[in-house]
Amino acid sequence: MREKPTKIDFFFDIMCPYAYQTSLWIREIREKANLEINWRFFSLEEINREEGKKHPWERELAYGWTPLRIAAWLRRIDRDLCDDWYLAAAKALHEDGLRPYEEATARELLASISAPEETWDEALADQTTHDDVRKDHEESVNKYAAFGVPLIVFENGRSVFGPVVVPPPRGEDALKLWRVLVDYSQIAGLYEIKTPKTKHDLESIAETFASYLKAREWRTVQTPAP
Q1: How would DSSP label each residue in the chain?
Q2: Tell me: the pLDDT tens digits for 79-129?
Q3: Calpha distance 154→168 (Å, rounded)
Q4: Cα distance from N-terminal residue to C-terminal residue, the chain
Q5: CA torsion angle for 166, 173, 40, 8 (degrees, to 10)?
Q6: pTM for this predicted structure
Q7: I want to staple 41 with a disulfide (CB 3.0 to 4.6 A). Which of 10, 136, 190, 201 is the partner?
Q8: 153-173: per-residue pLDDT in tens?
Q9: Strand 151-153 relative to strand 159-161: parallel, antiparallel, unpaired?
Q10: Per-residue b/e over 78-92, b at no fewer than 16 CB within 10 Å?
Q11: Dihedral sign computed on CA atoms, order 139, 143, 146, 150
Q12: Crossing angle of helices 65-77/103-112, nearest 10°?
């Protein structure tokens, strides 16, 4: 008898290069460990919003919020399309240096995953897609004290920031990390294990993120946009 799949919530923002790397790893775990992923939304634009600036849902278009509204619309009709959109849009940004919040690019990416032709128009015309993204984001912050992504929530209610992996492990190493994370989620009182990044580590990460850094037009808390 096949074991029931382990279910997790995976909170992401398409803008986040670290969440993208982790999402590649968790997709491999899904294939190897009978895992069910519930993709959910988090907004770096909102969590890092400067006082006096507009909320992302108050803007006509926003770097991360707009692609998340598309993801929300797709999630309503087909969770697999939401999954495919996250992968396609994040790959476009973080590997190809494209901007999935721009209409022409988004339409091409949506066509590549066989999303309904009206997705861009319908998702942005439907004001309730703001509500879907905002609901997920506010739950992550208010219930799980989220401050960034990737954020994984296990069935026991334990939330884990990370794992932060660049590049994501593959094969047996991917499974080793999954077993570590599952064990971590079951230890009460354990809040953080962190490997400091050396100069070499930072240079390696910067090389991996080169396409993203070239495409990025927004400021971050740690590094202003060029």
Answers
A1: -PPPPEEEEEEE-TT-HHHHHHHHHHHHHHHHTTEEEEEEE--HHHHTPPTTSPPGGGSSS-TTHHHHHHHHHHHHH-HHHHHHHHHHHHHHHHTT---TTSHHHHHHHHHHTT--TTHHHHHHH-THHHHHHHHHHHHHHHHH---SS-EEE-TTS-EEE----SSPP-HHHHHHHHHHHHHHHTSTT-----PPPPHHHHHHHHHHTHHHHHH--S--SSS---
A2: 999 999 999 999 999 999 999 999 999 999 999 999 999 999 999 999 999
A3: 20
A4: 55
A5: -160
A6: 0.93
A7: 136
A8: 999 999 999 999 999 999 999
A9: antiparallel
A10: eeebbbbbbbbbbbb
A11: negative
A12: 30
Q: Give the tokens for residue 225.
A: 């946009």
CA 97 to chain centroid: 17
Q: pLDDT band at 2, cuts 50/70/90?
A: very low
Cα(76)–Cα(191) distance, integer angstroms: 34
Take residue 94 and report the two structure tokens written for it.
């973080």
CA distances from 153 to 35, 62, 68, 185 (A): 13, 26, 19, 9
User: How much is the CA Rg of the chain, to the nearest whole Å?
Assistant: 17
Q: Report the candidate in 79, 24, 17, 68 with the shortest Cα–Cα distance to residue 43.
A: 68
> Using CA atoms, how far apart are residues 35 and 5, in angstroms rounded to an integer?
5
